[in-house]
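Example 3.
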Amino acid sequence: MNLVELFIEYKYYYLIGVRITLLLSFLSLIIGTTLGALLSILKLSKGKFLRAISNIYIEIVRGTPMMVQIALVYFGSYVIMGVNMDGFLAALIAVSLNSAAYVAEIIRSGIQSIDKGQIEASRSLGLSEGQTMRYIIMPQAIKNILPALGNEFVTLIKETAVASTIGVADLMYASKIVQSTSFQPFNPLIIVAIIYFIFTYTLSKVIGLFERRLAHND
Amino acid sequence: MIEIENLNKYFGSKQVLKDINLEIEEGEVIGLIGPSGSGKSTLIRCINYLEEPTSGNIYFKDENIANSGKGIDKIRQQIGMVFQHFHLFPHKTVLENITLAPVLTEKLTKEKAEDKAIELLKTMDLLDKKDAYPGSLSGGQKQRIAIARSLAMDPEVMLFDEVTSALDPEMVGEVLNVMKDLAKIGMTMIVVTHEIAFAKQVADRVIFMADGKIIEQNNALDLFDNPQNLRTKEFLSKVLEY
């Protein structure tokens, strides 16, 4: 059986996998970015305690493997809270929390890369802290943030493959099922690799389009 | 108009301003000179609270700046500041740079702010640059736009922090001329500068600072031609040598 035949034969599994992977990626992208933005605000805040909290969180998340984190959420929810958590939900929580840490760092460094003189000029004109952030800092920072954020989104799509380790029926999981039912070890993997690549390549093209439009505004 | 009482400022354990007392009248043009690291810039940055004084009081029109809290924005709207490195907003056009603050602080409507900006650009001879972005301008043009941006808020006093130090020599004149015109129409100005000739010509009073202290102050002619303090003499002989 060649690749195309294999795909048609087992398309049912692959389509479920596509749906789950896309849903997982999309939802964790939204949740992760939102949480990441909040975390970056904490990290840039004046309160020492708030900064410490976000620092500890970011360091721990970035310093442990995603596969461990996903297992911790999945099994931890049962051991600690006695809840039998759905695999998809556990994966969603773990991937979102993981992504939030990276997004927070991306936003923080994007904001801090703006020359302090911009803030001073804005404040010396009598604009408030909020106005300075909104009209002076963010429009400039976004140009640094967006490319890095695009990379993070691409990484996120790929990392969702870890969800298959706790039994979530994503693309990676589909390839495992097809491997064992078709007795082919190699070709099912090629098919998921191609599908993952289509997702990530499309996404980076779309982000590239955004970036160019932003650059055009100058 | 501005009263500074017993102002002290530390950066960490280093004291950069030592018990400064100073009063500035409306319409006065002050030249602030002294060697680098003498605290001149820190002093004027304390006046609009970009630096927080460690102790002492600064009054702007009888209002204590340190106690103003959120009111600091309102005070800053009356105090213009021009920086050595311009700090124009690179993502905004020249016109937007000038109209941004008056519109956001609801001082002027968008139309009125634009009228005012165009008028200011005309006096700066830069009207043709109104839709340009700062990145395409020369240093002298940028600095004149930065002055226009401050003036758009109708400030009662203007602070100039070594505004010609980052400019190519042939552009210094165009910026100094704008400042000279401002002085002529009675603007209250505090000018930190290394341009001794300019200070001599334009300043009503020149203050010499060293090591965080005001060493000597006098009207421009007397301070330059007849300095009393040894430290002032030393400094002037060095800068006037060439």
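Chain A is about 85% helix and 0% strand. Residues 10 and 181 of chain A are 9 Å apart (CA to CA).
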